[in-house]
Specification:
The protein has 16 helices and 12 strands. The protein is of the alpha/beta class and 492 residues long. A 6-stranded mixed β-sheet has the order 3-4-5-2-1-6. Strands 8-9-7-10-11-12 form a 6-stranded mixed β-sheet, with helices on both faces. The longest helix has 29 residues. Bound molecules: guanosine-5'-diphosphate and magnesium ion. The site of magnesium ion has 4 residues, from helix 10. Its main location: cytoplasm. This is tRNA modification GTPase MnmE.
């Protein structure tokens, strides 16, 4: 077998496991590349059948080893170029699941001459063969890693091309402005009028950006796209919500309730959760990393102290803090201290959702005083904090209201209250390029407004057009592509 190093951009027959290696009913092995169907036929029990199969059809047979031994009973889906995911001849082998079966089929393919695929190489080839633009290629990865239904919906929007269309639309506007600008410059040169040499012509060109309203519209649409990124990131990467409060306030109970499973130890002894424990939950479609912390209180126990210290660090990183008041005890000095100490931390009071837990035992006092008073500690509430939400981690009262509040706060913090799924940016790469295009365009508009000549404005417009071309991949370099696709998983 010829040995050469695999690289992005070749058309070698490649194979990879597309499903997880583990005990399962089925496993899927993907193959693609030049002559890949011929190569596959060499290790298949019915080679003529496979070679004669039309595209988008399925053949049944055995994968056969070098010594003619039966490796596995499989179904092979045949795809013929160019109507395939990669644009090349491809086949998906559906074999038995389980580590041994899938591995044996894969090894047989390797010894037949297939090489292991690189990360994201199937999608890379699809991109190279014009099957999808870069935003769609990136959305494939987003889709695979989507943690919630909503994250999936947003990725699917991009996969179906909403972002690519919006980028192309904005780019068309810019190209039109650029064309008008260059036409003007050419025309002036043809006329033998040098803008620089003749002050009156320079004045004429100054401030006269052709199709200025189009450029302004393009800038507005780029800014909307840039803003969408925070919201998209919230759905793709999620947020950190930390449950805090005094020992025994009911933090672990709330954590478990939100998880809908008993994951952390719930007891009556203060300080049981010595360190923090966390889990991902979906709150109204937003992936939320929920953390249950050690109770915040003065302690002499070194292990417990460490837990409390870590909890504080976690609080500083939190997007939201669900602060529980033990309703049975009311607001105590320790609660009050927590809020007073906020002033010394980077925690903003807007990040706090105040909860009155154990509302099944004691309801929220009708009148909550703005300041802690020694006479009525139960009714004291620090200023700037909205009234507490009554909940019961035992009966579930107030939990729907709480999840709605969490979602609303996180969406508000991500800058966009609307839950509309429209064209949005899915990756940091896209965001950088949109920012760069917007910056160039903004500078072009500012210069034009300041009366600067068009020959210094045109290059800025061109920079903007190029940045947008890079987003969809019309303009791209090999190393950018390699870096991007190497973050994909094998078999994608
Ligand atoms: N009645 C009532 N008891 C609760 C509620 N939430 C927690 N508890 C009880 O309060 C005690 C301490 O709860 P836990 O979740 O361990 O508190 P943590 O120390 O803040 O984690 C346990 O006995 C819980 O069953 C609630 O909403 N109502
Ligand atoms: Mg606890």
């Amino acid at each position: 077998m010829a040995l050469h190093s695999a690289e992005y951009g070749d058309t070698d027959p490649m194979a990879a496991l597309a499903t997880l290696l583990g005990e399962s009913a089925l496993a899927i092995i993907r193959t693609s590349g030049k002559n890949s169907l011929e190569l596959l036929a060499e290790v298949f029990s019915r080679p003529e059948k496979l070679l004669a199969a039309p595209g988008n059809s399925v053949v049944h047979g055995w994968i056969i080893g070098k010594d003619r031994s039966k490796i596995d009973d499989v179904l092979i889906s045949i795809y013929r170029a160019p109507v395939t995911y990669t644009g090349e001849d491809s086949a998906d082998i559906s074999c038995h699941g389980g580590i041994a079966a899938a591995k044996a089929v894969l090894e047989t393919l390797y010894s037949a001459g297939f090489r292991p695929s690189l990360h994201g190489e199937f999608t890379f080839r699809a991109f190279m063969n014009g099957k999808l633009d870069l935003t769609r290629a990136e959305s494939v990865m987003e889709l695979v890693s989507a943690k919630t239904g909503r994250a999936r919906e947003h990725a699917v929007q991009r996969l179906s091309g909403t972002l690519a269309e919006e980028i192309s639309g904005v780019k068309e506007l810019l190209v039109q402005v650029l064309a008008g600008t260059e036409l003007y410059l050419d025309y002036s040169e043809d006329d033998g009028l040098s803008l620089a040499a003749d002050p009156s012509d320079a004045a004429e060109a100054a401030g006269l950006l052709p199709d200025r309203p189009l450029a302004e519209e393009a800038l507005k649409r780029l800014q909307t796209l840039a803003e969408s990124y925070r919201r998209e990131r919230l759905y793709a990467e999620g947020a950190l919500a930390v449950i805090a409060g005094r020992p025994n306030a009911g933090k672990s109970s709330l954590f478990n309730l939100l998880l809908k499973e008993d994951r952390s130890i719930v007891t009556d002894i203060p300080g049981t959760t010595r360190d923090w424990i966390e889990a991902w939950v979906s709150i109204e479609g937003i992936p939320v990393r929920l953390a249950d912390t050690a109770g915040l209180h003065a302690s002499e126990d070194p292990v417990e102290k460490l837990g409390i210290e870590r909890s504080r660090t976690l609080l500083e990183e939190a997007d939201l803090i669900l602060y529980l008041i033990d309703g049975a005890e009311g607001i105590t000095t320790e609660d009050h201290e927590f809020f007073t100490n906020l002033a010394d931390s980077n925690i903003n009071t807007t990040q706090i959702v105040l909860l009155w837990n154990k509302a099944d035992l004691v309801s929220v006092p009708e009148k909550i005083l703005p300041q802690l008073t020694t006479e009525s500690p139960v009714q004291a509430l620090p200023p700037d904090i909205p009234a507490p939400l009554p909940v019961s981690a035992r009966t579930g009262v107030g939990i729907p209201e709480l999840t709605r509040e969490i979602a609303a706060r996180l969406e508000q913090a991500s800058g966009d209250g609307s839950r509309e799924v429209s064209a949005g940016l899915g990756t940091a790469r896209q965001k950088e390029l949109v920012d760069s295009a917007a910056a160039s365009l903004n500078e072009a508009l500012t210069l034009a407004a300041a009366g600067e000549p068009l020959d210094i404005i045109a290059p800025l417009l061109r920079e903007g057009v190029n940045a947008l071309g890079e987003i969809t991949g019309e303009v791209s370099t090999a190393d950018i592509l390699e870096t991007m696709f190497s973050r994909f998983c094998i078999g994608k």
